[in-house]
Amino acid sequence: MVRGGGNRPLIIDIHGHYTTAPAAHQSYRDAQLARLEDPSLPAPAPAAISDDAIRESVEHNQLKVLRERGGDFMLFSPKASGMEHHVADPAIARDWARACNDLVARVVSLFPERFAAVCQLPQTPGGGVGDAVAELRRCVTGAGFVGCNLNPDPSGGHWTSPPLTDPSWYPLYEALCELDVPAMIHVSSSCNPATHTLGAHYLNADTSVFMQLMRGDLFTRFPGLRFVIPHGGGAVPYHWGRYRGLAMRMGLPDPAEALLGNVWFDTCVYHQDGIDLLTRVVPVANLLFASEMLGAVRGADPATGVAWDDTKQYVCAAGLAADDLRQVLEGNARRVYPRLDALLTAQGR
Amino acid sequence: MVRGGGNRPLIIDIHGHYTTAPAAHQSYRDAQLARLEDPSLPAPAPAAISDDAIRESVEHNQLKVLRERGGDFMLFSPKASGMEHHVADPAIARDWARACNDLVARVVSLFPERFAAVCQLPQTPGGGVGDAVAELRRCVTGAGFVGCNLNPDPSGGHWTSPPLTDPSWYPLYEALCELDVPAMIHVSSSCNPATHTLGAHYLNADTSVFMQLMRGDLFTRFPGLRFVIPHGGGAVPYHWGRYRGLAMRMGLPDPAEALLGNVWFDTCVYHQDGIDLLTRVVPVANLLFASEMLGAVRGADPATGVAWDDTKQYVCAAGLAADDLRQVLEGNARRVYPRLDALLTAQGR
Fold it and tell me: Pfam family of this protein, just one (chains A, B) (predicted)?
């Protein structure tokens, strides 16, 4: 498939989740959790789901919206809130991650010109990263995945893990660097009634991790490590001066210089003023187009008729120069995800 | 004292902390904590601090900066990170809050034309609000305080308390309504290594609480309750579309209509782009001028020479109409803090 329309950029949405998987997949999860409560139950097997069922689950949802909005391609990962890393059993985490990733791989195999896969890692509260490394290797080297989602808080809102700068995470970073894939920082459901999953926990995680990175020197040790902070970076770009001023107070290097060789923000910010701020504050080279549809929000702003998560409209209206816009929509994604670039190049795109 | 310069607004900074209290105050705190470890130690008494020492601690710090920047008045509360509500002993919490508040009251008594007092509440993880109500009453009715700081997470980063919409908080809200004082939502130090106090925990708390309020109907039950969410509302205004879209998805009323009769945001956002977003997204009637100096950041942006927390410069450059600017700098504060208005009116201002 060759890109149409001459010189227009390929529009790559780097943040989509399989929030619409067939119900049988959730039934498998339910059976896993039931057996955790009652070990006398039989070990469940991942759901047998037909290609048609998978096609249907995507064609009328993410793919339909992608087409309607003029998008070309989406990085697709398992439903983030469904990762449920707070379930502490390592075998269940391994089986669940494998089943979720295998399902995403099937979506990709059915629509290879529309999707590339990003994997869920089998994490648990207090668990090591060995299982995560193994699943990452399986997905990337065995099944063509181009990235992963890394949960900085497997406890689900209690924040019992050490910061991402802690050496306990290093084996995962070594694998990410070796495989040359980035990690998107993405928590899962909140188990904490004080912090709503979509309205607090996701954004708080983005904010917390940026500050963790600011205080460490992870990228000196891992210069090839690449993190994508989703949801427009949580609170960070809005408080850009706070972070720069904090760095000054704490004797740390300016984050605008120290972190932006290794950290990118996506554009999942659901109104024009937010995207305007993001594109003004963060260098264009550090922005990755994304919508997270079908994700946190549904529907359209009654005042404008624009769907909340139609971030392409906001990004295109942010006043970026044409070359800059091309970087945000396509170029940066191909640079941050070299395995995506290879896939697209092999498709002649 | 009559306002000078004819018709210019009084510039009221509603968010200042006594971060510069004389060292003897911290020694009292240290002795409290030492006795918690070793009950055989004598019960310490609050530090004996002279008027001169208090004058000096403020004159060369907050008061100096206030004057230099052309500010007129500041709402002054104890150092937020020093509240340390995670220390679970209720008697220690009561004694510490009282000592902190008494010291702030002395600052006000020395500079009544520059400061009015906002109190710390004696909260503990898992504790009831009875002590908080008692201290609030003592401060407001006995010592002329005009507001309080309410910590939604006394645990200090573990978020073990129920959301602010939980009925366990109601007795405090009844007292706030009866006394007609607002509460600023303000956490204290983070005890969680994953969430830095100034770079994550403060902002996350602002964000979390807004979502808590969105999901409840607290202001139907307490129509006179007023909350100030500091630090520009955490991540909320930057993600205004996300909140409106979430509300739509969840079948909740639009927060722009449901919450803004009872919730205000301060202007502690330390760069022009952030303030521009805040003033564009949030109605002028819901903005309260504040700097939080001397607070999270120190120094100036090397690119502009503007001190990070000189938020007056950003607010004045945000393109607000003169009447709107007057509301942000003065009018809204007098409306949200009626006891402040009474104090100023009594001073002929």
Answer: Amidohydro_2
